[in-house]
């Protein structure tokens, strides 16, 4: 009875137990709740009755069990569709909770001395291997409980070694990425990589954790795996591959990526994905290919590259062509949003593409979708700031469409109204012919001032005359 009371007190003092039980009852199943209760009671009784074993064999047994959290190779059709049976998932989740909870309790009871810290530090790859595989609760092989327990395990491990963050730990231990990548890459061969979705997903998650310049020596091992993922036809796998390329571009110096043409290979692989009719893929590939071009090309604002056609121009032309043929409203919003990032980087060199860009702007300014209209107006404002010497030729047409939209007050939301007024104010400020006029455009007064800017424009005589004729006809009727 005395031992049971001590065990209960030990359980109540263990925050993970409370979290796991609450999540079991609210989000998962009663069976797991019963399992966790029994499991933690056993751990508590062991902790009360005997001191923790610090022997090398026991430490290796505790951490080596994390390597058993592997999923058997799936059939290709099941792996591609991420199909896992419920029985398989439940048994795997219980296994994750069992091994990770034991690791947490062991680290909390382990005596902290120099010898123990040295031993535990060597098992960091096992901890990161389990964490990267099960940290995402949305994946079919994980769940809310598994995600919680692996996060607690990683935090307890870092606290034991006196590190505040994962980045600080990875910077301090340069050999850890090599050992961890070895655990992931041993099953990812050319013929069988697509049968291990949990492993290549964990690999991409680990790449995203690594800090700058820590992946340079391991690029030959990672390079083919990332390309296999990007070249796949299944959107979820392609998204992981794009995340992997983004992590490599961020974590490896530009000179290393340019060496032996690796950055060019990344660019060619991403360029093919610009034609994929999937919104999520396009939304992720456009920023990634923009950063990849930044590795290969000099800054477009440099004087010696103003007149040269670069990969920025080639890619931007493809994006404009895709936007012109696109009919999906969600895809159009993605293109309009990401085009602004291209314009910000290309700056004045974007004037080369006005022949195709301006008609697209005019078309989408007449869109009835508020979000599409707002993205287009933001693009106009950006172009006005960066390329006004050429953009002023189209001032009349763009201003007419903006004011036309202002006059349709029933079609404008408050946010759209303010964006339109700000854009007209920006055009007024940038136009050399009206730079001396300091008209404040805000609210209803701003709406009226914007109309006056258009109405008093010297190039508006035909439109003005047409409006007067319509008024006369309406009076006669």
Describe this structure in words.
It is a single chain. By secondary structure, the protein is mainly alpha-helical. Helices cover 70% and strands 0% of the residues. The chain has helices at residues 2-12, 15-27, 30-49, 56-64, 76-80, 86-109, 114-121, 124-134, 144-160, 166-172, 176-185, 197-209, 219-230, 235-251, 254-258, 262-272, 279-296, 311-325, 329-346, 354-365, 370-386, 388-391, 395-407, 414-430, 443-455, 461-476. The longest helix has 24 residues, at 86-109. The protein is elongated and about 80 Å long. The protein starts with a helix and ends with a helix.
Helix percentage: over 70%
Radius of gyration using CA atoms only:
30 Å
Instruction: Return residue spans where pLDDT drops below 50 for at least 5 consecutive residues.
Output: 1-23, 25-30, 47-52, 434-446, 454-466, 468-473
Structural class by SSE content? mainly alpha
User: Would you count the extended β strands for me?
Assistant: 0
In whole angstroms, how far apart are the ends? 100 Å
Oligomer: single chain
Shape: elongated
Strand fraction band? under 5%
Average the pLDDT over all residues and give the rounded result.
76
Q: Compute the number of helices.
A: 26
Biggest beta sheet attributes: none
H and E order: HHHHHHHHHHHHHHHHHHHHHHHHHH
Brief overview:
With 477 residues, the chain is mainly α. Helix content is 70%, strand content 0%.
């Amino acid at each position: 009875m005395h031992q049971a009371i001590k065990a209960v007190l030990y359980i109540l003092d263990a925050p993970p137990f409370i979290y796991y039980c609450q999540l079991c009852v609210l989000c998962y199943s009663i069976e797991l709740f019963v399992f966790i209760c029994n499991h933690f009671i056993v751990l508590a009784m062991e902790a009360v009755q005997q001191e923790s074993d610090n022997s090398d064999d026991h430490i290796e047994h505790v951490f080596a069990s994390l390597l058993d959290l592997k999923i058997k190779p799936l059939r290709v059709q099941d792996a591609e569709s991420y199909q896992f049976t419920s029985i398989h998932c439940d048994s795997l989740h219980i296994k994750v909770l069992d091994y990770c909870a034991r690791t947490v309790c062991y680290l909390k009871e382990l005596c902290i001395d120099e010898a123990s810290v040295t031993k535990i530090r060597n098992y960091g790859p096992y901890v990161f291997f389990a964490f990267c595989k099960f940290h995402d609760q949305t994946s079919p092989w994980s769940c809310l409980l598994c995600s919680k327990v692996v996060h607690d395990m990683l935090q307890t491990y870092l606290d034991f070694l006196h590190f505040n963050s994962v980045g600080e730990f990875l910077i301090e231990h340069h050999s850890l990425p090599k050992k961890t990548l070895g655990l992931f890459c041993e099953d990812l061969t050319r013929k069988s990589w697509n049968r291990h979705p949990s492993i290549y997903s964990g690999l991409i998650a680990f790449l995203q954790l690594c800090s700058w310049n820590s992946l340079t020596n391991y690029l030959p091992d990672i390079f083919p795996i990332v390309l296999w993922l990007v070249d796949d036809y299944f959107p979820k796998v392609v998204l992981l591959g794009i995340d992997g390329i983004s992590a490599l571009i961020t974590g490896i110096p530009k000179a290393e990526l340019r060496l032996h043409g690796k950055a060019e290979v990344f660019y060619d692989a991403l360029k093919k994905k610009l034609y994929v009719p999937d919104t999520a893929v396009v939304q992720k590939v456009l920023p990634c290919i923009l950063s990849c071009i930044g590795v290969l090309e000099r800054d477009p604002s440099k004087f010696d590259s103003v007149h040269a056609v670069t990969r920025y121009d080639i890619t931007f032309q493809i994006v404009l062509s895709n936007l012109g043929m696109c009919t999906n409203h969600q895809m159009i919003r993605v293109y309009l949003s990401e085009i602004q990032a291209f314009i910000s980087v290309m700056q004045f060199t974007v004037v080369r593409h006005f022949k195709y860009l301006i008609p697209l702007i005019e078309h989408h300014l007449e869109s009835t979708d508020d979000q599409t209209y707002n993205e287009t107006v933001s693009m106009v404002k950006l172009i006005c700031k960066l390329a006004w010497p050429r953009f002023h030729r189209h001032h009349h047409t763009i201003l007419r469409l903006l004011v036309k939209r202002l006059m349709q007050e029933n079609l404008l939301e408050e946010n759209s109204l303010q964006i339109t007024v700000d854009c007209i104010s920006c055009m007024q400020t940038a136009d050399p012919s009206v730079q001396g006029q300091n008209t404040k455009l805000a609210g209803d007064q701003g709406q009226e001032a914007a109309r006056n800017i258009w109405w008093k424009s010297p190039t508006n005589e035909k439109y003005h005359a047409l409006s007067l004729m319509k008024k006369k006809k309406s009076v006669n009727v």
